[in-house]
Design brief:
3 helices; alpha+beta; 97 residues; 5 strands
Length: 97
């Protein structure tokens, strides 16, 4: 599973994915496919693709159309997230209730 696979998943499913980095920071992929490391204030001393390869657990936040509804968060193992990414073919949108 590559970063590009997760970016596609976040766009297609309208979700956010968060995962920890080895240096204690956290990477967040938003529903637009943009990766952000909030605590980063300069050129990183790491490769995000390499960091992703070591991650075993992810947080998946479901975005709702109504901003008054709370964001639902699920914890997924690497295998579960990879299966979810493979199951979302191009052009499919999925709005979980």
């Amino acid at each position: 599973m590559k970063l590009a696979d997760l970016r596609k998943l976040t766009i297609r499913r309208k979700v956010r994915i968060r995962f920890p980095l080895a240096n204690g920071m956290e990477c967040s992929l938003d529903e637009h496919g943009v990766a952000r490391v909030a605590a980063l204030h300069g050129v990183p001393g790491f490769n995000l693709e390499e960091e992703l390869a070591a991650v075993r657990e992810f947080q998946l936040d479901t975005i709702t159309a109504d901003p008054k509804l709370p964001v639902r968060t699920r914890t997924l193992r690497r295998e579960e997230l990879a299966a979810l990414a493979e199951a979302a073919p191009a052009g499919e949108t999925h709005d979980e209730e």
